[in-house]
Amino acid sequence: MDFRDIDGPTRREMIGGAAALGAGAALVQPAALFAEAGSLADIRKAAEAGKEASIKRIRDWIALPSIAAEDRNMPEGAAYFAQLARDAGFSNVEVVPTDGHPGVFGTLDVGAPRTLGLYFMYDVKQYDPAEWSSPPLEGRLGEREGLGTVMLGRGSANHKGPEATFLAALHAIRAAGRKLPVNLVLICEGEEEIGSPHIHQLVTKPNVLAAFRKCDGVFMPTCLQDLEGGATIELGAKGIIELELVASGEKWGRGPKKDIHSSLKAIVDSPAWRLVQALQTLVTPDGNKPAIDGWFENVRLLTENEKKMIREGIKHTNEARMKENLGVPHWVDDLSLEDAMVRLMQDPTVNIEGLVAGYTGPGGKTILPGRAVAKLDFRLVPNQTRAEAVKKLRAHLDKRGFKDVEMNVSGGYDPTETDPNSRLIRAEIATYKKLGVRPNISVRLAGSWPGGSFTQPPVSQPVGRFGLGTGGNAHAPDEYLLIDSTNPKVAGIVDATMGYAEFLYTFASIK
Amino acid sequence: MDFRDIDGPTRREMIGGAAALGAGAALVQPAALFAEAGSLADIRKAAEAGKEASIKRIRDWIALPSIAAEDRNMPEGAAYFAQLARDAGFSNVEVVPTDGHPGVFGTLDVGAPRTLGLYFMYDVKQYDPAEWSSPPLEGRLGEREGLGTVMLGRGSANHKGPEATFLAALHAIRAAGRKLPVNLVLICEGEEEIGSPHIHQLVTKPNVLAAFRKCDGVFMPTCLQDLEGGATIELGAKGIIELELVASGEKWGRGPKKDIHSSLKAIVDSPAWRLVQALQTLVTPDGNKPAIDGWFENVRLLTENEKKMIREGIKHTNEARMKENLGVPHWVDDLSLEDAMVRLMQDPTVNIEGLVAGYTGPGGKTILPGRAVAKLDFRLVPNQTRAEAVKKLRAHLDKRGFKDVEMNVSGGYDPTETDPNSRLIRAEIATYKKLGVRPNISVRLAGSWPGGSFTQPPVSQPVGRFGLGTGGNAHAPDEYLLIDSTNPKVAGIVDATMGYAEFLYTFASIK
């Protein structure tokens, strides 16, 4: 749903694990090594030859935005991706209906001993062209200081760009006359940006489930490099619930059913005040800690080992720059960086994404609104579950007399954890090291993604994200993907393609 | 600012004083009497002859919307009204600059013993043509069930229609070859809909102040009849402050300066939560009573006489219909109608007009907003003052550590009280009675209007509103003014014109 930051690589690293900001250049090998490493010279040649086709593949896909929240181009987006998968060599590709929008399933069985699972998404976030410096559906190229040539477009980084780059690796391997070193199993959903409400239906479809259970791990292509060339490997992610709390005269049976003149406040109850009163029970008075009954019951605190991992991860972090990038002068409770990063990884959150009630235009309007809405997200940590959290929140409100305050849950999923000793994670680490990229091991992503759908039964696979290259402004205007890098520490699109190829060979051969 | 309701005459009466809803027809003389009453047959003839010109005057004025909140047509609106005033016989008409938008001042001195003050406004409320059934600037005529022919247009009821109708009375008196029975002093402001922030500058300009101090009262033309033919006379109005409370990372020095990724809530303070926590201190837990330190210190409770007036006023009120019209099943605290009406007149309020923070579109967006805004209005009762209330609110927030929470006061004014024995009110009552209209004496308007600018020093005049006819949907789509009445109890535009003429003669002659 939102495992990309909204401001590009520097901030993303912080969210991903407080890792690489300000890391010393001495740790990183020159980017020229991207080209030397491995024994895949024939594939590299094919990847270079296929570069223009690869750029076109991303650009053409960007031109068809599928937006689940707007029910826009959903069947079209599924059909389009199904064809992309077939073109890359997948067989038995099928569009899989759900109670929501369809997904796409396919396999690429080369008879290899090992099988790797792939999680893709074909949907993108909403956008407002007026806020963009470049038309969001045209995938134009531009220059970005300190990075190089980037492609601007909705989905370029999140996630069409990295996904299409992975497909480019399959094209290059085939063009080099090679057989894939692993079998692939692919699921692509169209509801990632609305919280993956039907991914469970996709992964538990019998033929899909059977295919995924044969895997040795499931990964999502992404572009995780920071500007110093490191790349984060997350050993899990927080879960999330997104919902609206709605107070209304309609449901309450008090207050007005619609907006009325504000002078009537003297004798009419106010749904907006009711919402405020319900909200303030959810957190401590400083707004920083969940205060929902029983919320911490199943929260697993970080182990000493995990805290040590965090301390390692922030060794090279420039805290001042991080704060400046975020526009945040102080962490909560004036925590030190180390304590803040432990808090970031360890603590569940209750966040107000938005408030909407009554008159929202310029100036004022003397009305007593009949309805007030708070948009909230709740980040969950192991061993909380989405179902538990929804139930506890409802009980908390009910107990305080807010039975009428509606909870419209729009999406979410459980937290995810993956064993650092799983073959998937070891292959990720080994590939990064081979390519001269410093792996930053992160306890977990403080954001969320639907990886839990794979780690939990019945799929029960390790999951991870992997990818060279970088991009930014996901969910924001001027989203971009790095195409040609001028930063020797960060991969452009051909090196990112080769990163996936290397990963497949490493995954196939690692013990 | 909002002394008209948003739903037409039935609701207005409730706001104005819980008066006439469901009043028995037996109390009311037939509307034919509008034509008989008085000895102004020559003026009526002129008013009838001038009817089309009168309609055109309103329509042409509606075509030039002056909207202070949007800084739209403000100098143009002042100049336009100045010409309307000159056309109606005012001399020395001047556009008076302020630190905000200009007003218009003029006098009409006929050497009469008595002088009447007039308060006009030339601005109108914002509108969205898409919500209207008729173009809001075209002043088209249409039929309204139970009323007759109405003119639809922004400002038709609030307040261009009644004001232009008063000017029509001056035209008719002149056309009949008569001299006015009183001198007139006129001020017209352009910022009524944003809370009259500069009216004090207008009324204290030396020549304006000198002219108003010679008056025997100041009145505003309006159309105050209910569907049973009664008309409300308010002996005052609540005051108001309108403001935004703004919590922001920028001012706070904590939290983010702009929207950031919501996963960071674990380590970054939230201005939205801060706003919620600040808000909830302002009212009792049920949201129904101000809880601001010292708020009730100067509140004058209603006298037994005033409560008796309220009991009189609700004798004919159909409470069930009132609640149904409002969409409100219960008054606060399940009060009886009588107790609710006492509360309506007597109590100050703290109301949330609107809440705006972060993401406000459909679904969710995982951000931690850098800024959160609550739009509030505070109704004030005698003897609270606007200045006192602003100061106490600031002190209340400061004391609780919310010094950074900004208070952007956009408008407001003190409560108003007028002596029921003043010549102005006695003339209003006498005129209504003469015309067969039942006067509903209301303790005060639960809404607000800038009458306090005239009742207080240095002007120190009784103020009141007066006018036959009706209209509705002020501040809302399809605002309308009754032109030709099919309801024998409610005046159309010619009878409303004659109502003003009668009032001027009554005011001139009453002891």
TrEMBL record, chains A, B:
It comes from the Bacteria. Gene3D superfamilies: 3.30.70.360, Zn peptidases. The keyword Transcription regulation does not apply. Keywords: Hydrolase, Metal-binding, Protease. The keyword Metal-binding applies. InterPro entries: Cyt/Met_Dipeptidase, Peptidase_M20, Peptidase_M20_dimer, TAT_signal. This is M20/M25/M40 family metallo-hydrolase.
